[in-house]
């Protein structure tokens, strides 16, 4: 029972992150599952099974709000499903000893990306432009799906920034289309894990706990988006993912036996970088807020100022026009 409650909290935390940043549900939840000692393939399978429910709910919500570009969904979802099915098959065939550092390495790279992305540039933004081409979406879907399945997450971190960087979609439609297509990706990954691991390799109670936690967190995440700066949250979550997966890699057999002094030095450096990143993001957020306040102040002052009284109109002696009526002489 204690494990189920813990997994519910993991799902809640992961959904808080994903709902606030538009990415990182899989990365966060898989990282935390590995941290509590879950088998890598089982962790990814459990997360993707839970994502079938969360992405379906998210996709329906985005569809109702008009945030989905169905052409993009059709063009990226099928390659993403192929990539995720292949990734699930590859991960299922690896031994636990080999899979753990591989998954942690992918998660570490994604964590570094999230940390740098939000610390240096803040919330990703895009601009309207031409339609996104199939020759761009197909390889993106294959790569994103493969990384998502083998790393236990990555569809959002791979797909969302790439579409935003293309400059051809509104940010809301990028997030809506990526979230909606992720339902197909999660479904294909779950099928691949079922074939590779069998139903015995997936803990359905754990998946249900993650799903329930995510559903509970959804409205809270919406509140966080309105009140908590995404830039700061991105730096905080990115640093957490980097630290956790660095710990997993150091303790694996991939690097051999790492001396205790070296481990301490690595952790100290990472903690300092993490603290500096959060401090930088807080400072940048406050600076942006000041700029917005200064830009809004003149507009508010103009709206609140009283309009000046019009000057009296001058009387035209030739035509008699003006504020005072002309008095004509009579014979």
TrEMBL record:
**Annotated localization:** Cell membrane; Membrane
Instruction: Spell out the Low complexity composition-biased ranges.
Output: 297-323
Give the membrane topology.
Answer: Multi-pass membrane protein
Query: What InterPro entries does the annotation carry?
Result: TM_pro_TauE-like, TSUP/Inactive_protease-like
Give the residue range of the signal peptide. none
**Pfam families attached to this UniProt entry:** TauE (PF01925)
Superkingdom of the organism of origin: Bacteria
Question: What keywords were assigned to this record?
Answer: Cell membrane, Membrane, Transmembrane, Transmembrane helix
Give me the ranges of the annotated region Disordered.
297-331
Per the UniProt record, which residue ranges are transmembrane? 102-120, 178-198, 204-225, 232-250, 262-282
Tell me, in one coarse class, where this protein mainly resides.
Answer: membrane
Q: Transmembrane among the record's keywords?
A: yes
Stated family: Belongs to the 4-toluene sulfonate uptake permease (TSUP) (TC 2.A.102) family.
For this entry, the protein name equals Probable membrane transporter protein
Identify the species of origin: Nocardiopsis sediminis
Q: What is the lineage of its organism?
A: Bacteria, Bacillati, Actinomycetota, Actinomycetes, Streptosporangiales
């Amino acid at each position: 029972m204690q494990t189920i409650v813990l997994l519910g909290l993991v799902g809640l935390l992961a959904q808080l992150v994903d709902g606030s940043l538009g990415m990182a549900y899989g990365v966060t939840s898989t990282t935390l599952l590995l941290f509590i000692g879950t088998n890598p393939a089982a962790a990814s399978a459990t997360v993707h099974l839970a994502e079938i429910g969360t992405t379906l709910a998210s996709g329906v919500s985005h569809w109702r709000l008009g945030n989905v570009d169905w052409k993009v969904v059709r063009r990226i979802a099928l390659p993403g499903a192929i990539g995720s099915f292949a990734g699930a098959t590859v991960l299922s065939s690896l031994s636990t000893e080999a899979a753990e550092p591989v998954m942690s390495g992918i998660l570490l790279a994604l964590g570094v990306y999230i940390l740098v992305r939000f610390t240096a540039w803040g919330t990703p933004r895009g601009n309207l432009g031409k339609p996104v081409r199939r020759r761009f979406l197909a390889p993106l879907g294959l790569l994103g799906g493969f990384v998502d399945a083998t790393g236990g997450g990555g569809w959002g971190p791979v797909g969302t920034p790439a579409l935003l960087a293309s400059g051809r979609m509104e940010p809301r439609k990028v997030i809506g289309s990526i979230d909606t297509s992720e339902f197909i990706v999660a479904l294909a990954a779950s099928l691949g894990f079922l074939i590779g691991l069998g139903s015995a390799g997936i803990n359905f109670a754990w998946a249900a706990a993650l799903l329930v936690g995510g559903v509970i967190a959804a409205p809270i995440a919406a509140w966080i988006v309105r009140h908590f700066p995404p830039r700061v949250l991105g730096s905080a979550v990115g640093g957490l993912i980097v630290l956790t997966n660095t710990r997993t890699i150091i303790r694996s057999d991939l690097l051999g036996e790492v001396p205790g002094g070296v481990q301490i030095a690595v952790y100290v450096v990472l903690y300092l970088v993490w603290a500096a990143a959060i401090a930088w993001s807080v400072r940048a957020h406050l600076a942006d807020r000041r700029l917005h306040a200064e830009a809004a102040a003149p507009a508010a002052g103009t709206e609140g100022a009283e309009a000046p009284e019009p000057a009296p109109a001058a009387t035209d002696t030739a035509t008699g026009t003006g504020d005072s009526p002309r008095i004509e002489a009579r014979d």
